Amino acid sequence: MIPVLVVDDEPMVCAHLRTILGSAGDIEVVAQAGDGAEAVEAVVRHRPRVVLMDLRMPGVDGLTAIERIAALPDPPAVVALTTFDADTYVIRALRAGAAGFLVKSTPPEDLIGLVRVAADGHTVLSPSAARRLVALSSDGRERGDDARRRTSGLTERERDVLACLGEGLSNADIAGRLHLAEATVKSYVSRMLVKLDCTNRTQAGLLAHEAGLVAR
After folding, report:
1. Helix (H) or strand (E) holding 52
2. Domain named HTH luxR-type: which ranges (predicted)?
3. pTM of the model
4. Strand, coil or helix: what is 82?
């Protein structure tokens, strides 16, 4: 079972998500929270693998909660919930440690599938969405310079793997493209996350876009 925490200040939204996710045989909503402070407490208490986090809430908002959860030992994958397709607030959430984002109008069958993807440690963010988010960044040139500096010490193979992360590819897909063993790709990814000071694959993928490693 995939334990999931749902966080939203609208009880009807939480009930809707519970109903959708409860229809899947391998997903269990173990708790819900109404703001960011409750969310952090629920993560510590229930140890979910995935957190669906509304960003705009009164009190402690979703962005602050994501930062606090990312700082916990062995944090879950946090997926930001938003009403908008892409905005600068989502960028801040991804840079804070979110594994991706979902629009609240996502069809039920897609929502279930994407929760499974997040639980497996993969990015819940399409390459096209990543490009739009980077384009929306108000400090794009500065971010690009910083990204190129941070990636300058990577080997050619590491840059290839990072570019694949920017395309949203899984370890298996990267292994197939680069003719590597999947275990080797996993090792590359783990080392790069540390070297680049990235919390997860999504942050690394955004960095690849900002550094210009992914074809537009």
Report:
1. strand 50-54
2. 147-212
3. 0.77
4. strand
Which parts of the chain sit beneath pLDDT 70?
Answer: 84-87, 126-129, 131-141, 216
Report yes or no: 54 and 13 within 8 Å, Cβ to Cβ.
yes
Angle at 188 between CA 174 and CA 116, to 5 degrees: 55
d(CA 132, CA 138): 12
Bridge pairing between strands 2-7 and 27-33:
parallel
- Quick one: 43 exposed, middle or buried, by C-beta within 10 A (0-12, 13-18, 19+)? buried
Are 65 and 53 spatial neighbours (Cβ–Cβ below 8 Å)?
yes
Please, which residues have CB within 8 angstroms of residue 26's CB and are 6 or more apart in sequence? 1, 2, 116
Structure tokens at 209: 């876009």
3-state secondary structure of 21: helix
Residue pair 115/28 in contact (Cβ under 8 Å)? The answer is no
Whole-number Å distance between alpha carbons of 212 and 216: 8
Question: Of 56, 79, 60, which Cα lies nearest the Cα of 5?
Answer: 79
Q: What is the pLDDT of residue 169?
A: 84
Give me the DSSP letters along 184-214. Answer: HHHHHHHHHHHHTT-SSHHHHHHHHHHTT-S
The number of angstroms, rounded, from the C-alpha of 28 to the middle of its chain's C-alpha atoms is: 20
Stated as kind and residue range, the H or E segment containing 80 is strand 77-82
